[in-house]
């Protein structure tokens, strides 16, 4: 089509001009770099793309939420300690930061209150912000305005049990606006009320994992309880909000091994998606008896990409692939069963 517009003073372009232009085009194409595994196109060609590849080197995101109102994903970062956004065309922008954010881990978008809640920890991944006083001691909840990124509150959690090691990991928010935060290094679930007052919601030796990662993913069920995953054993717990001490272990009816359990997503009252990073798998779990028992109804293999957490977008679910702490990019991938 391009050549049809090329003319000479006496008529259509002569064949030698076409040959020269063809050779020039071939030469320019030869200068274009080939696509490699870590140099993938970032602009999607369809709505709700199957994957979004984000060229952010050594960002190592851990948590993810989809912000429907603003058509963007919200992600955390172990290595940078910031909160950022990603759009479908891979456009990347920083939403929030604070010097106390050493590593940002779990993220919860409380859309009705226009808040972004972020779990803050320090396991040494952010080499520019870690310190001897915060390493394995920092556990906090940072709360930001979702529109402006302004810090609304910063709540210390580790100080409630200063003698223990800490790693604030994931967050659930109930209908009243109370936040519940798991600690992977201490056998604790914290509660932070809407006014920012922190307390130990539940502490129990069953949650202790020694030097391994313990409590991890957490979700709020609309019937008034939490579902919590323990990573080192793959155990799921049902924790009633009104009486947390009466928590019970969910029986795995199919004998499925869920070790490495990380992010949880409740897609409806009977269906839970669970990301197992160590197994490179997203499990679809179902319960018909209010989460006394659970069975597997599907799996999605991610490959060796260190999947962490998962978020709902309309009727779809997207899982986060951080790869490693030094990777040149990360991905957000639609899950299919």
Automatic annotation (TrEMBL):
It comes from the Bacteria. InterPro entries: 6-blade_b-propeller_TolB-like (IPR011042), Sensory_adhesion_molecule (IPR053224). This is SMP-30/gluconolactonase/LRE family protein. It comes from Hymenobacter negativus. Gene3D superfamilies: TolB, C-terminal domain (2.120.10.30).
